[in-house]
């Protein structure tokens, strides 16, 4: 069994990687120019050191990289063939006896490898990059003041009428553990003390469980309550340093969020959709491009290669529209019902697995 790749295989992989890298730099440069001039005017009003603006742009560009990566890498698979056709390298491959099916398979492998490796890295980096971009802009540049201090895994919050010490159990600040609340009046005299094992935010109130309560009017004698509801001056948004949309949460944070929503019997379809899309993200470059590459090679002829090129690029954008439409429906909650999933699932299985069959199972055949 031959494990070492042949020279032409390495060349195909390297070319797809090189075109992907150049394409990503071009797209990120375009986004960099937009972000720079869009935010520069606001930044100058704050009068902060320019290195902070550079830090913000750096982290924001990593977020942009996550957003364009699968689409640019997929397009690069088609662009690689476009370049080969224009420089006659594709004709050279075929003249040397390398079948079209072999080129399809190796291009597909390259797209799959880049998509999985790059996707895993970006899924890990995205939450950190998002936090730093938002934190740098909102607190370091805009000068927004934090209302809480995070020490270890605990939050220390000081409000107008209370102190809070708690352990966040969920990334959006709606579920807390090991809660201590001190409520006081305008003269800072203590009115009540509360301890609770856990608590969650629902409909404008905090629902605390396993509560020990001491109130001034009762001489601070302890009361034990299995559950109690309170309205405090702090809300979940107050307890989070920066507010991140579900789209930018990490996989562990999404799992924590889903568990919390399930615990309080609240809909969590949005979180399930994002968990699915995080995994699907790794395969998007391959799924977007492989059928386009197949069509390019299928209709390639040396004297009229432009027909295959335009057909391949056209099919890529058709695939892209299909994916974006599905992604939008999924995030809006329309694709989580059983009938909708069955309809899309059958269409998706046929559409995508047939493309995988073309690359990995179908024999190469003749040129």
From TrEMBL:
Q: What is the residue range of the signal peptide feature?
A: none
Annotated localization: Cell membrane
Tell me the membrane topology, using the record's own terms: Multi-pass membrane protein
* Transmembrane annotation, as ranges: 12-34, 68-85, 110-129, 280-301, 308-330, 336-360
Gene Ontology cellular-component terms listed: ATP-binding cassette (ABC) transporter complex
Could you tell me which Pfam families the record lists for this protein?
LptF_LptG (PF03739)
Q: So which domain of life are we looking at? A: Bacteria
Cite the entry's keywords alphabetically: Cell membrane, Membrane, Transmembrane, Transmembrane helix
Q: Which BP terms does GO give this entry?
A: lipopolysaccharide transport
Q: What is its main location?
A: membrane
Q: What is the designated name of this protein?
A: Permease
